Amino acid sequence: MHSFSVTIEPRFYETDALGHINNASIAAWLEIVRMKFIASLCTDGSYEAQHWILASLQIDFVAETFFGDDVIGRVAEVQVGNTSLSVLCQMHQCGKLTVKAKAVLVFMDDKTRAPVRVPEFLRKQLNANS
Which of the listed residues 26, 29, 89, 104 has the most CB atoms within 10 Å of its CB? Predict the structure, then answer.
């Protein structure tokens, strides 16, 4: 898989009373990383975010994340299922792993709202980059 990362600049309003980045903000940042990763695979302009539904999200908070230093969110691994992608992400701040997460995204037909097979062009892109 090709290396993919996004730099996130924490904002003060994303902190909690202890000065940590709020857990809800971390979940939102993970979504940014996942969606930008998928968009990066769609080089033909066919990317549409509404096709992807979040089915599961597991977040492990490994260390504290703070305001003041950029966070690098990266896709560490992707597993392709029939109608889904399992995306493993990591977040690092100042070179330290702070978050590990696994999300399962289901590819949906935008008209029927039913799961459909992950498109072949995405499968090819993911296989070419593995």
Answer: 89
Burial class from Cβ neighbours inside 10 Å (0-12, 13-18, 19+) for residue 36 reads: middle
Domain-wise residue ranges, the chain: 4-128
Give the DSSP letter string of 49-101. Answer: GGGEEEEEEEEEE-S--BTTS-EEEEEEEEEE-SSEEEEEEEEEETTEEEEEE
Q: For residue 27, which amino acid is it? A: A
Task: Give Cα separations from 39 to 52, 91, 98, 124 (angstroms).
Answer: 11, 19, 25, 14
pLDDT tens figures, 42-73: 766 665 666 899 999 999 999 999 999 999 99
pLDDT tens-digit series, residues 78-128? 999 999 999 999 999 999 999 999 999 999 988 898 999 998 888 888 877
Tell me which residue of 41, 96, 28 sits closest to 66, measured CA to CA.
Answer: 96
Q: Check: pTM over 0.85? Answer yes or no.
A: yes
Give the containing element (helix H, strand E) for 34. Answer: helix 23-41
